[in-house]
């Protein structure tokens, strides 16, 4: 079973270290835009030096040349997982992969693409993005495009994970945010699920933020996520 990926959505390094210091074990953490844009690449180096695995969730989406150069730089940070938006297109995703391969000194980080954000509903997607498909069809389309571009997998919700595995194969990873403990506040997420449903419905990794980071006892909340994810 993979470790749950804990989203370090904090405003600065003090809050990050206060959170991480509660744990005796090494975690798989996610550094996203909030933290990275405040603290820069140094925060990634510091967390890595503590021995944690890192998903650098910057969701790159730009012209192929820009994404390739940016990925080359990110590869040098020694992170484990990075991402782009599949909506950037196949050529952009191929360029991201080329950048990572050129920039990596050791093992290349895994590269995945966001299909439809877990905060998006089908109605919103159809009206605002003017995509005349069901949400599942759109996610499957982006997953296939991502696979054709040679990436390692996608970000999707738990609700699409099983169909993606059937369509793209089980080795094509499904990273699923929008995870909540039973009865937990969904906040701004729309396509949510519990850790045990994620296990049953084909997630490869779950991403958990506020259900752990905003809990009164963060270690207990993390243990509860692990217990449900592992099916104990
Ligand atoms: O589709 C997506 C892609 C990324 N995220 C990120 O995951 C976490 C989820 O945080 P919660 O507090 O558990 O809601 C957050 O960092 C998002 O940027 C996502 O939610 N959905």
UniProtKB/TrEMBL annotation:
Belongs to the OMP decarboxylase family. Type 1 subfamily. GO terms for molecular function: orotidine-5'-phosphate decarboxylase activity. It catalyses: orotidine 5'-phosphate + H(+) = UMP + CO2. Homodimer. CDD domains: OMP_decarboxylase_like. Its EC number is 4.1.1.23. Transmembrane segments: none annotated. The gene is pyrF. Residues 3-225 form the Orotidine 5'-phosphate decarboxylase domain. Signal peptide: none annotated. Keywords: Decarboxylase, Lyase, Pyrimidine biosynthesis. SUPFAM superfamilies: Ribulose-phoshate binding barrel. One of its GO terms (biological process) is 'de novo' UMP biosynthetic process. Catalyzes the decarboxylation of orotidine 5'-monophosphate (OMP) to uridine 5'-monophosphate (UMP). Pathway: Pyrimidine metabolism; UMP biosynthesis via de novo pathway; UMP from orotate: step 2/2. InterPro entries: Aldolase_TIM (IPR013785), OMPdecase (IPR014732), OMPdecase_AS (IPR018089), OMPdecase_bac (IPR047596), OMPdeCOase_dom (IPR001754), RibuloseP-bd_barrel (IPR011060). This is Orotidine 5'-phosphate decarboxylase. Substrate binds at residues 9, 30, 57-66, 118, 180, 189, 209-210. Gene3D superfamilies: Aldolase class I. GO terms for cellular component: cytosol. The active site is at residues 57, 59, 62.
């Amino acid at each position: 079973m993979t470790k749950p990926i804990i989203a370090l959505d904090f405003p600065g390094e003090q809050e990050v270290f206060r959170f991480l210091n509660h744990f005796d074990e090494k975690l798989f953490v996610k550094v996203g835009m909030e933290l990275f844009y405040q603290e820069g690449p140094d925060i990634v180096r510091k967390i890595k030096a503590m021995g944690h695995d890192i998903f650098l969730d910057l969701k790159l989406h730009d012209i192929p040349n820009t994404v390739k150069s940016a990925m080359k730089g990110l590869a040098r940070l020694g992170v484990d997982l990075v991402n782009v938006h599949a909506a950037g297109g196949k050529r952009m995703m191929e360029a991201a992969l080329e950048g990572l391969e050129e920039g990596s000194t050791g093992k290349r980080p895994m590269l995945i693409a966001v299909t439809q954000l877990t905060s998006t509903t089908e109605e919103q997607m159809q009206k605002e993005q003017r995509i005349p498909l069901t949400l599942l069809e759109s996610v499957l389309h982006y997953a296939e495009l991502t696979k054709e571009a040679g990436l390692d997998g996608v970000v999707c919700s738990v609700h699409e994970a099983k169909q993606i595995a059937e369509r793209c194969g089980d080795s094509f990873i499904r990273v699923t945010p929008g995870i909540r403990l039973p009865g937990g506040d969904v906040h701004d997420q729309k396509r949510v699920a519990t850790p045990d449903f994620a296990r049953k419905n084909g997630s490869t990794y779950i991403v958990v933020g506020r259900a752990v980071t905003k809990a009164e006892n963060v270690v207990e909340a993390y243990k509860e996520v692990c217990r449900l994810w592992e099916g104990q």
